[in-house]
Amino acid sequence: MAARKEYGPGQPFKGLNINGSLHMTIQTGVLIETLSALGAKVRWCSCNIFSTQDHAAAAIAKAGTSTVFAWKGETLPEYWWCTEQMMTVPGADGCDQLVDDGGDATLLMHKGKEFEEKYAKDGSLPDPASTTNAEYKCILQLLKDSIPADKTKYTRMAAKCKGVSEETTTGVHRLREMAAKGELLFPAINVNDCVTKSKFDNVYGCRHSLPDSIMRATDVMIGGKRALVAGYGDVGKGCAFAMRGAGAAC
């Protein structure tokens, strides 16, 4: 709200296409509204097939604040279709800035450019049968269908993008690996390690949401149970503290 009040009149994002792959919730809706209020043209999808709040997605779409490709319970092929639609900006080569959570949109752009270069070199297309990973199979199928229709779509998209923010530990690790190999096509900002993310979201957020979700889903008392938390990073610590606080042996 403060950003809208302070920067809204100046329209710092006017003329920019800002695309995002983030959990399509009410909170994300507020972010989308803020980007729009600051002048951006916004396109959005969800970074998770389960987390979309349909009423939030519908409200943003109905208001015309953003073009939204998200609904709760997407299949994997639908999820990747939504990701491609979000990234495909009508009348432009792609977005100017990308807001990513999990790195899937960033990955698709990089893999798209990689396979477009192979296609230009020898006419080869991605082979979905070359992998047993269900999600990567969807990516290869999407690119196999996309490249013959537009041979340089993702190459142009990568050139257009000025930078990406990444919000998840796994996505940040992937970006660091790409940067170390010289494969990262545009600048990236690590949002995951900001204190507002690593502490309020990963530690305190999980500390609140884990017992809440277990109690809502099972209606079983946590106290007296044995809980196993695999991993002891910020998220693992928050989960372990929560279970211990609720009386579990952790």
From TrEMBL:
Coiled coil: none annotated. One of its GO terms (biological process) is S-adenosylmethionine cycle. InterPro entries: Adenosylhomocyst_ase-like_sf, Adenosylhomocysteinase-like, Ado_hCys_hydrolase_NAD-bd, NAD(P)-bd_dom_sf, S-Ado-L-homoCys_hydrolase_CS. It comes from the Eukaryota. Keywords: NAD, One-carbon metabolism. Its cofactor is NAD(+). One of its GO terms (cellular component) is cytosol. It holds the Pfam family AdoHcyase. One of its GO terms (molecular function) is adenosylhomocysteinase activity. Residues 202-250 form the S-adenosyl-L-homocysteine hydrolase NAD binding domain. Belongs to the adenosylhomocysteinase family. This is S-adenosyl-L-homocysteine hydrolase NAD binding domain-containing protein. It comes from Effrenium voratum. The lineage of its organism: Eukaryota, Sar, Alveolata, Dinophyceae, Suessiales.
